[in-house]
Specification:
67 strands, alpha+beta, Immunoglobulin-like, 1204 residues, 13 helices, Sushi/SCR/CCP_sf, AMOP_dom, globular, 14% helix
């Protein structure tokens, strides 16, 4: 029940006659404004006024109204009653009552009314609502209705003095279609009562005075001004609830009437409630009344520095938010210090949103081409700029780690000096050496303004380098930094689904990547029509985890146009393990910033950017993959779906379908330990005497682990979301996180399904999620159960989740019904047993409703559809869908019938997607190459494509087998082992020996410190395998890794159970033989006594016996066999095709003899020449002249250079 609320009262005088709002300050009225009036009458009303918009009032929409002579606007019927009854009233008397009393305009006065969408009136209404309701700072009026009682007299005013007693007042109705408000204006009130209500004939006082307020007509909901039906009501021109004499303002669209103005309760209301993490937004803080000489400061967040704020109006304070390095609810404290140094502090909450979940105001044109040093274009929509653009400027901020590796935002430079008001874009030069930056448009303020400046932001982004050298340098710097952070080896994180359709329905564990376009077609990041995902341009859609993994890690899963998961080690790119989830929930992480600095930027520089310059997989990307291996999707286990739709039809997670129509509140399901409870509210719905019911509300809660979330229909707003019983304002918000629960809101992208919105509610820690489709009069939903929900652990209307549909129909008392029971039996013996008690209810009850008011234990639905009711029109609408037949027969609602038929098809698809199938996931990573696979399902194949500077070793082919593994392949890509180097002074060729990557090893990987001579490697086995051998290799001077017999052996004993005796037996297996470079083992099996033969490549020779045997201990017998490559390659004589010898002894001897002979010839020649010259100089009688020293030095240097 609603109690009378006290309003602020100021008595200006003790006289009964006093003026309030001057008529000139009323909303314009009268014949000059095009108003209507009606004939002089007593107790009459206007004709029905059909209004051009739906007007929300007491949680109901109205498309017509009546203006009644007796000071009332009514909605459901006219009102001729002249003596006001006390509120609340029933009988459909839904009233807006500025002054309900016995008005008689036969004795004088006029009643005017009109609806208007005049621009000037709408602007005035907008300003009034924003002034008196600072929390409605974004409100824009769309429709106004003005009713004015101008100089009206009272009934029984028959004397000359009584005829001069007149009242003038006005009611203004305002709405934007979602919220609605009423303003009462009073100029003068000189009488309160007609004589028929006990008033005096001379003065119109006494008796039963006027009533002022609002009445819902249900006998429950109402609001009345405190002075109603008392003599004090004559003081209305001197009263107010907004500190303006003669004016009252109310919000009236919900079940509770909300007063405007300020309060002294100490609680702040902050608008808008949601704020960008980067700050710079103006917030209106309302609650206390503000004086012009008050000093105002605010603190955003515990322990933060205070900032200066300014008076916005007598009802609110304006503050500009600082930069936050956190998300979620942040405390706000406003301190108001009066001129006499008296201070009071008021507290409230603001919700900081992750920038990745907000669409940036500043949009980057062609964002995939923002290259360092280039001119780029920044755009915006002027209505989205909350300040005067004239004189504003653009600043560049960099995002980089501090000394503790925590990313921070740093000012870099001013990129544009002056923006004109007519501009909607600007060109600037991307002049920065930093990798990650963000741009800001900043308002121009006066020099003496001590408040912070408003600003709007772009997305944070990675700058494209000028060339691949820059890209690789950035990648190298990241590797150095990453090595200083804890290793991610062994981190437990949820793997990706192998297919897009699995990811799309896995609301428990994943949500769409905000860097991609949302499934409903919207996009959080900058628009680029040529790509769907900015960071992964070849992806159709990417997904991120709902809950961070161990140590706050994330997982990014990307899918191509075929719906297949994408591999990072391909030219198209793909997702990866991420050191920091973009939620940033750990102490060492900042939301969004840590992810873009430590995950997104490295992926750009190590993988994405190099692909702009080369088609091969860069070695940097391979090393990135080693640090960010995403895990294998073949380990993914799909969720199990359940569903409810239409005139409620239930499909349990075990696959049983049935119909149950109750009216009241019921247990949808709960865990048997009561750690998780979900309940539904059903309300009756039917036509032509038939009886059915629909779901109108769903509520769920994880005990002591999550907030309580309720999604319920609302006739005005479509639906409401309540968290812990509090109605959430979800205007312009699509993604919200609360304790233990994530809520996302999507528009309907479907052209075949006509629901208005989709609300996803995920409880990740409980492995449970709801996909709720909002229709006009009912809710449909899908419940997903992950692997964390134990089989057989739930009970309620959705059965028991034990993979057996035959025992799903279980009553609360434990009685099990046959799965083929009739609808009537199911209703009476199972469904009704799950009605909840008032103590069990999780629902929030609106004013005027209660647990008892929504129950109907006597409700009896239609159980069967007569055969005669299924006519051709029904079959055309429903096909062969019997649930559709039922809904159309019971409700006559085409929308419901179509939604039911669509839900049946959706369920079949969900069940198919949710079946666990065998997949192989990604093939093992290969350095210097990439696998080109046809898919990841059984019998899909793959081919190894080596980089242009590497050669394929092995067959290069793999196939996905029926056990979910790629068949063993010893294929790998070997880079050229000798890299030519040129001496710039002589152009003589030298060489550097490299070994490339070691041979692949199943169940493990080599951890190497390089690939040059003397570099070493250590074999790291998977957690389910053990190292056999030393596990160490070294790159020798011939460009080969030293022969290693090391390998990783999986568990050699596989337990088997004899189904008749339950005795445990064992089978000995050896697994794969150790890998051999330049060859492969050909084995006839892996069990005891199986054998293998070593087959060397065509350019290598067998050394050793080449035979091994699997022994009874599960090991291959030790073999010293290996494949030695030929040192000298055979050459073919083109004329004879004869092959020259591969022996190295003869060519070596010939080469040595040739060199020795050449040296002797050179020495003899020098001696002969010098002798000749000496003899010649003696014959001419000249002195001996030496060669210039410089020439000798030059020749010696040249000689030494050539023979270095």
């Amino acid at each position: 029940m609603c109690t009378l609320l006290h309003i602020w009262l100021v008595v200006l005088s003790f006289t009964k006659l006093s003026h309030g709002i001057p008529l000139a300050e009323f909303y314009p009225f009268g014949v000059s404004q095009g108003d209507s009036d009606f004939p002089k009458n007593d107790d009459g009303s206007s004709p029905v006024v059909t209004i051009s918009t739906l007007f929300p009032f007491f949680n109901n929409q109205h498309d017509s109204l009546y203006v009644n002579t007796n000071g009332v606007i009514s909605f459901l019927r006219t009102l001729s009653q002249y003596t006001p009854d006390p509120f609340p009233l029933s009988g459909s008397r839904r009233l807006i009552a500025p002054f309900w009393a016995d008005v008689d305009i036969r004795n004088g006065g006029t009643v005017w009314y009109r609806e208007t969408t005049s621009a000037s009136i709408l602007q005035r209404a907008t300003d009034d609502v924003r002034l008196f309701y600072p929390s409605q700072s974004s409100f824009v009026a769309a429709w106004v209705f003005i009713a004015t009682w101008d100089d009206v007299a009272f009934f029984g005013a028959t004397t000359p003095d009584a005829a001069t007693k007149r009242n003038s007042f006005q009611a203004v109705l305002i709405t934007n279609g979602r919220h609605s408000f009423t303003i009462y204006n009073y100029y003068e009130i000189t009488w309160t009562t007609g004589t028929a209500s006990g008033g005096t004939p001379a003065e119109g006082l006494g008796g039963t005075p006027a009533q002022v307020g609002f009445n819902a007509g249900d006998g429950v909901n109402y609001y009345a001004v405190n002075e109603s039906r008392t003599d004090a009501i004559i003081n209305l021109p001197r009263l107010s609830n907004v500190h303006v004499d003669g004016k009252f303002v109310f919000r009236i669209d919900t079940e509770t009437i909300e007063q405007g103005g300020c309060n002294t309760g100490g609680t702040l209301t902050i608008s808008p409630r949601y704020s960008h993490m980067f700050g710079g937004e103006k917030k209106l803080l309302s609650g206390p009344c503000i004086q012009s000489n008050d000093t105002l400061t605010a603190v955003f967040g515990r322990g933060a520095s205070s900032i200066n704020c300014v008076m916005h109006s007598q009802f609110s304070v304006a503050c500009v938010t600082p930069i936050f390095y956190t998300t979620g609810d942040v405390s706000v404290a406003l301190t108001v210090t009066t001129s006499n140094q008296q201070s009071a502090t008021y507290e409230g909450m603001i919700t900081i949103l992750n920038p990745l979940n907000m669409k940036p105001v500043l949009q980057r044109l062609d964002p995939s081409n923002w290259r360092r040093g280039d001119e780029v274009t920044l755009t915006w929509s002027t209505p989205h700029i909350p300040f005067d653009i004239e004189g504003s400027y653009v600043e560049i901020y960099t995002i980089k780690p501090d000394l503790d590796h925590i990313p921070r935002i740093y000012y870099h430079s001013k990129a544009v000096q002056y923006i004109e008001s007519i501009q909607t874009e600007v060109t600037l030069t991307l002049d920065t050496k930093d990798d990650v930056i963000v741009l800001s448009l900043v308002e121009l303020t006066q020099g003496n303004d001590q408040t912070q400046r408003q600003r709007v932001w772009s997305d944070a982004f990675v700058v494209i380098p000028k060339n691949i050298t820059e890209s690789k340098a950035s990648c190298t710097r990241w590797q150095t930094t990453d090595d200083q952070l804890p290793s991610l080896s062994g981190v437990d994180v949820q793997v990706c689904p192998c297919r897009l359709d699995q990811a799309e329905i896995d609301l428990v564990r994943f949500h769409p990547d905000p860097m991609c376009q949302s499934p409903d077609g919207s996009q959080q990041s900058d628009a680029d029509t040529s790509i769907n995902c900015l960071v992964h341009p070849h992806a159709k859609q990417c997904f991120r985890l709902n809950t961070p993994g161990t140590r706050g890690t994330g997982q990014l899963c990307c899918y191509d146009d075929n719906g297949s998961i994408m591999n990072m080690l391909t030219s198209s790119g793909g997702g990866s393990l991420q050191r920091y989830h973009y939620f940033g929930d750990t102490d060492d992480a900042v939301p969004y910033l840590s992810n873009i600095v430590y995950d997104t930027a490295p992926y750009y520089h190590c993988c994405a950017y190099p692909h702009l310059f080369q088609s091969d997989v860069p070695s940097e990307c391979y090393r990135f993959h080693q640090r960010r291996t995403p895990g294998n999707c073949n380990e993914y286990v799909p969720n199990t779906p359940a569903q409810n739709f239409g005139d409620p039809h239930f499909v349990t997670p075990d696959g049983l379908s049935y119909t149950f129509n109750g009216v009241g509140e019921f247990t949808l399901f709960k865990t048997k330990t009561n750690t998780f409870i979900a309940q539904v509210r059903m309300q009756s719905l039917g036509t032509t005497g038939n009886q059915g019911s629909v779901i109108t509300s769903v509520v769920a809660n994880a005990a002591n682990a999550s907030d309580r979330v309720e999604v319920r229909l609302n006739s005005i707003r479509g639906f409401d979301i309540l968290v812990n019983g509090v109605l959430e304002d979800i205007t312009d918000v699509q993604f919200l996180r609360y304790t233990g629960v994530i809520i996302s809101i999507l528009d309907n992208p479907s052209t075949t399904n006509n629901h208005t919105k989709q609300v996803n509610v995920a409880f990740p820690e409980q492995d449970i999620a709801f996909q709720i489709l909002i229709y006009g009069s009912f809710l449909n939903y899908v419940v997903s159960f992950g692997q964390g929900v134990k089989r057989g652990s739930i009970e309620g209307l959705l059965g028991n989740l034990n993979q057996d549909p035959k025992d799903d129909l279980v009553s609360q008392t434990g009685d099990v019904l046959p799965s083929n029971s009739s609808t009537e039996v199911i209703h009476n013996r199972m469904g009704m047993s799950w009605r909840i008690t008032e103590d069990e209810s999780l629902f929030t009850y609106a004013v005027g409703t209660s647990y008892d008011s929504v129950q109907d234990k006597t409700f009896s639905p239609v159980f069967d559809v007569p055969v005669s009711a299924v006519d051709n029109a029904t079959r055309e609408l429903c096909g062969n869908d019997t649930f559709c037949y039922y809904d159309y027969y019971v409700t006559g609602d085409n929308t419901m019938a179509r939604s039911t038929r669509m839900s049946t098809h959706t369920l079949a698809k969900l069940q198919e997607i949710s079946r666990k199938t065998v997949t192989c996931g990604f093939p093992p990573a290969v350095e210097h190459g990439q696998w080109n696979i046809s898919g990841v399902d059984v019998d899909d194949t793959g081919k190894l494509i080596c980089n242009s500077d590497a050669q394929l070793q092995g067959s290069g082919h793999i196939t996905c087998n029926t056990e979910g593994h790629w068949n063993a392949s010893q294929s790998y890509c070997v880079p050229s082992v000798v890299k030519a180097t040129i001496d710039p002074t002589t152009e003589a060729t030298g060489s550097t020996v490299t070994c490339g990557f070691p041979p692949a090893v199943e169940h493990g990987q080599w951890n190497i410190n390089g690939g040059d001579a003397d570099d070493t490697g250590k074999l790291i086995c998977n957690s389910d395998a053990q190292l056999q051998g030393s596990g160490h290799i070294t790159c020798n001077t011939e460009g080969h890794w030293t022969a290693s017999q090391s390998y990783c052996a999986p568990s050699v004993v596989k337990a088997t159970i004899d189904p008749t005796t339950e005795a445990t037996g064992s089978t000995v297996t050896c697994g794969f033989p150790p890998a051999v470079e330049h060859g492969q083992w050909n084995i006839n099996g892996g069990d005891a006594d199986d054998t293998g033969k070593l087959i060397c490549n065509s350019d290598a020779q067998l050394q050793g016996s080449g035979h091994i045997t699997c022994n009874t201990e599960g090991h291959w017998t030790a073999s010293q066999s290996y494949c030695a490559p030929s040192v000298v390659k055979a050459t073919i004589d083109p004329t004879t095709e004869a092959t020259r010898s591969n022996s190295w002894l003869i060519p070596m001897a010939i080469a040595l003899a040739s060199v020795f002979t050449l040296i002797i010839v050179i020495l003899v020649s020098i001696v002969l020449v010098r002798c000749f010259c000496w003899k010649k100089s003696q014959a001419k009688g000249r002195d001996h002249t030496e060669f210039p020293k410089s020439t000798l030095d030059f020749d010696n240097a040249a000689y030494q250079s050539r023979h270095y």
